[in-house]
Automatic annotation (TrEMBL), chain B:
Protein name, per record: Sugar ABC transporter permease
Subcellular location field: Cell membrane
Cited Pfam families: BPD_transp_2
Annotated TM spans: 54-72, 79-98, 104-124, 136-154, 174-194, 224-243, 255-274, 281-301, 307-324
Alphabetical keyword list: Cell membrane, Membrane, Transmembrane, Transmembrane helix
UniProt key word Transmembrane: yes
An example Gene Ontology CC term for this record: plasma membrane
Record organism: Micromonospora sicca
UniProtKB/TrEMBL annotation, chain C:
One GO CC annotation: plasma membrane
Main location: membrane
Superkingdom of origin: Bacteria
Designated name of the protein: Sugar ABC transporter permease YjfF
One GO MF term: transmembrane transporter activity
Membrane-related topology note: Multi-pass membrane protein
Organism encoding this protein: Micromonospora sicca
Entry's localization field: Cell membrane
A Pfam family annotated for this UniProt entry: BPD_transp_2
Keyword Membrane: yes
Segments crossing the lipid bilayer: 27-48, 60-79, 85-104, 111-133, 139-160, 181-201, 232-254, 266-299, 311-332
Length: 521, 368, 337
């Protein structure tokens, strides 16, 4: 199979709207991009693929003028361009929608779409014309929301679509979507894709970045793969198998994942029936309907469900992050009053939040301080952990989890996502928890770290720890778990045994609700 | 002073510019007036301009210490000036109202009462910030606005003068050095030891950097925030006692006027960010000294004392600007590293896994 | 804050009833302020004879014209998420410069121009430092406050009285509204300024961008909005408003003094907050701030009518009100901590 598929015959007739040739971006001591060629055709969805650090964001930033390339040329419609920043790029028809919704939550939908180019009358913003124009744009995309409503009142998914409406409102020739789907559930992704297709058919060139392979295969026509700042190849999506794509991206294979599977299998045989955590009738109004749950020693219990199904909320209740208003939790048979995370920690429960930056690591503290934080908090401020013990612990865990850089004094905020996740895991493992709750531990991190973390989970279960594993990637849940708890509409709807497949889970989630069934099918 | 950490940090160091500023100020004084650096020993007391700077700077330093911890938790306490006034008002009116206004007992009762009330005011601020979760700048604005009114209520709008030798010791007494210096130094050392020798400092910084992550890591974020506000109020109370003791009077209108601004400035000049997180007590000490030295300098150079403000503004702007390009330089150095880091993250992982036994197998698949 | 499962709710039933369509809870504090104003006024009317006379209302504006002007400027700054502590000091400096240059014999129009120029320049400088050096507005405007106060005393340590005939006639001129009620030119200027500010903040791109910056500065930048222009602009506006307020204050006092308007920044901030503007930025109304000033004014009037209450009760009352409104904001806005 040709890695260097420079010309794809089917598009030979169309001229590229964006053409980047020999782009290099260098920073002192670092070559972030090296002589990368990239082209974007009108009317296509083009996926930019690569692991974290492959240079995807650097390429996008070089295109939109955030970074100035040290070498190479960028052509827009055949003319050489060099942008001073995103605003400048936008003026030339290149709009970007980022992972985090970059709109103003305090303004109305209409203002968010049109701010900076509102229709005016006598120098004043014409509110009515503004709303009418916004309604028109939204209707164009098949979105029927009140343009006069405040943005913050809408769920994130709608906000994301509003961001796209804004991007489109400038008559964008090029639309860059940087991880737009990471906080959307399946329905919402389907909606987004529908809109992307509408735009594509209108001739907009869409550059799409996503960690979800399924989505990339569903929506994209062509992909460019980067690795370590270099171009690996450009392919038609239809011509490249998933396995080929993954090996192009990581330059190696999936051996580690196979090992995870093997370890999980072994653990499954050994999983005991000794309960560690028993929850009966635990629930919280408006959050999760009362549920029963038992977790045994050495068992990985997967929590599956769409975003908003209550999986994160359930985990937060078990940890006391939100206070349950009914039911009881027992640890090793002893009743536990879950009034705060502190009480849960004291009873041997640990929780890694899905929001690594916001609720996990303390960015401005060193790796050392982050690692010992939970243990220190449990000890209380008056009993500091002796320097020597601290150093031993830190050294041990940096090595055990392969945290990079292996410098205890490095600030955690400067680490990559995968390494931050490892720091977070180590923080809890130091406290020797009985129950470890992991909420999306592999989201947004590269495949190398992903497999390491999954392997670790399997190993921990083998050693007797009870693990609750939450992930949006059902394959991951099915592979790792001894039991899968399926969540839907904020309640627990089923419990599946070890032999549960992704299809089983999907069917349960899609059941009754025809709409989601259509998506799942 | 506390551990090796301040020394470690010094090299890189946010303390460098404040220290340079202080040295330049002192040097300028010494050049203009050679007697500036002289110390005299007389009647068992140490005299000299340097001693004066320390003595006059003691209240600001005390308040800045409390402010520093509050700022470290992402907070701010605008009410300390009002608390200063209240502390003085309570102490003086209690002493005046006592059976024997000159007795040591009256002084201790008055001061105890004042500090207790300050602790209550701190609890109040902490309640608004930690329990009701109101933005600190607004929450403490309430007491800043109402506090002077309360102080005037206590003194009935009058300036209360007292003649109590014990009370006078706090602000104007001598024990080789002025007692106020000794108190301020004692509090400084106490805070340094308590926060840096225990884990309190780490927990405070953690709460300041990321409150929610800290809560989920099992920290008592709320208690910690509450505590620092109480501490700040007590520091302000002690400073208030010092100020009113020094003049043997309680002036509800003018005692501690703008001292919250001086304290915040001291903290910021000392390199602690108003955004919370990492804090520096040594920096705060330097900041307080810079501000006081500046004031003293203006006095000693025979310029109208009111114009001190202009110099204060100039120093603030200068120090902030000196720190700002540095921040920007660091940012400039940091930006290019960002793409590099994940690379170094992925690379070794790749190298490591390429050696797994199954590697060759998938390689074949990929080539086929 | 991370999942779409818990969208931020900003609706208030009361607001929805009032306008019959989706109205955010942010209007509620303004309405509450208005209700409070009416209530306080009602209390005064019920208890004191003569409280309802037109002149009492007119005096409310006459005595607070300068505060209204400052609060308007402050609203702009706070809407962008900033704060301006320098306003009181700039007012004092303006009175001082005006008085000193009039004493030096400069013609009145030139003096006015000079003062306005000075105020805007100070605002511009602070805005530039805040934006380009990324230093917190709190610190920069604090430095601005020290600088302006200090400069007052550089001009002169003593109070300087204004004897210029133009100024004096302007200050004493009364505009009769009816037989018994008259206002001053200061009130006209202040209200005209309010009208202009309402238009600029609510209806122009500049104003809407100010809200955007207050909602999320990084988003506003990525949306390609002129963030720098607006962020610096609001401080220029605040500086200009402070200078205008300074001129009105010098008309009111007919003197310039470095200790004029001490603590006025606090009154201005309190008025703005009581008027329903969020100190975290992104939400606020100019008319709300006007109402906030009037509420403070009514309280002062009440206390002066009462006679036996001492002036410090004003401070305590303002503090209590601040507290009430802050707690109310928490209830209605449900902002993230």
């Amino acid at each position: 199979m040709s890695v260097d598929a420079k010309q794809a015959p089917r598009e030979a007739g169309r001229a590229a709207v964006v053409q980047m040739r020999g782009i290099s971006v260098e920073f002192p001591g670092v070559k972030a991009l090296q002589e990368v060629d990239f082209r974007l055709l009108p009317g296509e969805v083009h996926a930019l693929m690569g692991e974290n650090g492959a240079g995807k964001s650097t390429l996008i930033k070089a295109l939109t003028g955030v970074y100035t390339p040290t070498a190479g040329v960028t052509l827009l419609d055949g003319r050489e361009v060099s942008f001073s920043g995103p605003a400048d790029a936008q003026d030339s028809g290149i709009s970007t929608v980022y992972q985090e919704v970059n709109l103003c939550p305090n303004l109305t939908v209409a203002e968010n779409i049109l701010l900076g180019r509102e229709p005016r009358r006598f120098g004043a913003v014409d509110g009515r014309a503004c709303r009418a124009r916004a309604a028109e744009l939204l209707a164009d995309m098949g979105l029927h929301i009140d343009p006069g409503s405040v943005l913050a009142e809408h769920p994130i998914a709608i906000q994301q679509l509003v961001a796209i409406a804004r991007a489109v409102a400038v008559d964008a020739k090029v639309l860059i979507l940087d991880e737009p789907t990471s906080s959307l559930d399946q329905d919402e992704v389907a909606e987004l894709f529908r809109i992307m297709r509408v735009l594509r058919d209108r001739g907009v060139a869409i550059l799409f970045v996503s960690h979800f392979l399924e989505q990339v295969y569903e929506i994209s026509d062509r992909m460019t793969v980067l690795r370590n700042g270099r171009l690996v190849g450009e392919h038609l999506t239809a011509d490249l198998s998933r396995l080929d794509l993954v090996s192009l991206m990581i330059g190696r294979e999936l051996g580690a994942l196979a090992e995870v599977e093997r370890l999980a299998g072994q653990a499954g045989e050994e999983a005991s029936t000794v309960p560690v955590l028993q929850a009966t009738g635990v629930g919280r109004k408006g959050s999760v309907a009362p549920f029963d749950l038992q977790i045994n020693r050495g068992e990985v219990v997967g929590l599956a469900g769409l975003l908003g199904s209550g999986r994160t909320e359930l985990a937060r209740l078990l940890f006391g992050a939100d206070r349950p208003d009914s039911g009881q939790v027992r640890i090793d048979g002893k009743a536990l009053h879950l009034r705060s995370p502190r009480a849960a920690i004291a009873a041997g429960i640990a929780y890694c939040s899905e929001d690594r930056k916001g609720e996990g690591v303390v960015a401005d503290l060193s790796i050392r301080d982050n690692l010992i934080l939970a243990m220190q908090a449990a000890n209380g401020w008056a009993r500091p952990i002796p320097r020597k013990t601290k150093d031993q612990l830190v050294e041990k865990w940096i090595k055990a989890l392969d945290i990079r850089p292996a410098d205890p004094d490095a600030l955690v905020g400067k680490l990559s996502g995968g390494n931050q996740q490892k720091v977070l895991l180590a923080r809890w493992l130091i406290t020797k928890p009985k129950v470890l709750i992991l909420d999306e531990p592999t989201r947004g991190i590269d495949i190398g770290a992903k497999t390491q973390i999954q392997k670790l989970v399997a190993e921990l279960a083998q050693e007797g720890m009870a693990v609750v594993y939450i992930s949006a990637e059902l394959e991951e849940v099915a592979r790792l778990s001894h039991r899968v708890v399926v969540m839907k509409d904020r309640s627990k709807i089923a419990e599946l045994d070890q032999h549960a497949t992704v299809d089983d889970i999907m069917r349960l989630i899609a059941h009754v609700d025809e709409r989601s069934e259509a998506v799942a099918a | 002073m506390t551990s090796t950490r301040p020394l470690d940090r010094f090299r890189s160091s946010p303390l460098l510019w404040p220290l340079v500023a202080l040295v330049v100020l002192l040097a300028a004084n010494a050049v203009v007036r050679p007697s500036f650096l002289a110390l005299r020993f007389q009647d068992g007391h140490l005299y000299g301009s340097l001693v004066d700077i320390l003595k006059n700077g003691a209240p600001t330093l005390l308040i800045a210490l409390g402010m520093c911890l509050v700022i470290a938790t992402r907070g701010i306490d605008l009410s300390v000036g009002a608390v200063v006034a209240i502390a003085g008002a309570v102490a003086c009116s209690s002493i005046v109202g006592a059976g024997d206004p000159t007795s040591a007992k009256a002084a201790f009762v008055g001061m105890g009462l004042a500090l207790a009330l300050c602790a209550v005011l701190g609890l109040w601020n902490g309640f608004l910030v930690a329990a009701l979760r109101i933005q600190p700048i607004i929450a403490t604005l309430v007491l800043m606005t109402a506090g002077r009114g309360i102080a005037m209520l206590i003194t009935d709008g009058q300036i209360i003068t007292v003649r109590n030798p014990t009370f006078r010791t706090v602000g104007a007494g001598f024990l080789l050095l002025p007692v106020s210096i000794l108190i301020a130094v004692a509090v400084f050392v106490l805070v340094a030891i308590v926060t840096r020798k225990t884990a309190l400092g780490l927990l405070i910084e953690s709460v300041g950097i990321n409150p929610e992550a800290s809560r989920l890591a099992g920290l008592r974020s709320r208690t910690i925030r509450w505590t620092v506000y109480v501490f700040a109020a007590i520091c302000a109370g002690i400073a208030g006692l010092m100020i009113s003791s020094n003049v043997s009077a309680a002036d509800a209108n003018n005692a501690g006027l703008w001292i919250e601004m001086d304290a915040i400035l001291a903290v910021v000049i000392g390199g602690t960010s108003l955004a919370g997180g990492r804090y520096s007590l040594a920096g705060t000490l330097l900041g307080a000294l810079i501000i006081q030295t500046l004031t003293t300098t203006v006095y000693s150079m025979g310029i109208a004392p009111e114009i001190t403000l202009v110099f204060k503004a100039v120093v603030v702007i200068a120090v902030c600007l000196l720190q700002a390009p540095k921040v920007r330089a660091v940012l400039l150095r940091r930006t290019p590293r960002r793409p590099a880091r994940p690379v170094s993250d992925a690379e070794p992982a790749a190298a490591q896994h390429a050696q797994t036994p199954t590697a060759s197998m998938v390689e074949k698949v990929a080539q086929s | 804050m991370t999942t779409s499962a818990t969208p931020v709710k900003g609706k208030a039933p009361l607001g929805a009833i009032l306008r019959g369509r989706s109205v955010p809870g942010r209007v509620v504090p303004v309405i509450a302020t208005f209700v409070l104003f009416v209530l306080l006024f009602g209390v005064g009317a019920a208890r004191y004879e003569g409280f309802t006379s037109g002149q009492v209302v007119a005096n409310l504006f006459i005595d607070n014209a300068f505060l209204i002007v400052i609060a308007v400027g402050m609203t702009f700054v706070i809407v962008t998420g900033g704060i301006d502590l320098s306003v009181g000091a700039v007012v004092a400096l303006s009175t001082m410069v005006a008085a000193a240059s009039l004493r030096a014999g400069l013609p009145a129009p030139l003096v006015v121009l000079l003062v306005l120029l000075m105020g805007s320049t100070l605002g511009l400088l602070m805005g530039l430092v805040i934006h380009y050096f990324e230093i917190q507005p709190f610190i920069v405007t604090l430095a601005g406050m020290f600088l302006a106060r200090g400069l007052c005393f550089v001009v002169g340590v003593e109070s300087i009285s204004i004897k210029d005939p133009t100024f004096r006639s302007f200050a004493t001129a009364a505009i009769p509204l009816s037989q018994n009620v008259s206002i001053t030119w200061s009130v006209v200027i202040a209200l005209a300024l309010v009208a202009v500010a309402v238009w600029v903040l609510h209806r122009t791109r500049f104003g809407r961008t100010a809200y955007a910056v207050g909602g999320s500065e990084s988003s506003a930048t990525l949306m390609g909005l002129p963030v720098a222009k607006v962020k610096i602009g609001v401080y220029v506006i605040s500086g200009l408003c402070s200078a205008i307020a300074g001129l009105l204050f010098s008309l009111y006092m007919l003197s310039g003094y470095g200790l004029h308007a001490v603590g006025m920044e606090l009154d201005a901030i309190a008025s703005v907050v009581i008027g329903g503007t969020l100190l975290s930025g992104g939400v606020g109304y100019v008319l709300g701030s006007l109402l906030g000033v009037l509420v403070l004014g009514v309280i002062q009037t009440l206390i002066s009518f009462q006679g036996t209450l001492s002036s410090w009760w004003t401070k305590i009352a303002i503090g209590t009100l601040l507290l009430l409104f802050i707690v109310m904001q928490r209830v209605f806005m449900r902002r993230q901590p």
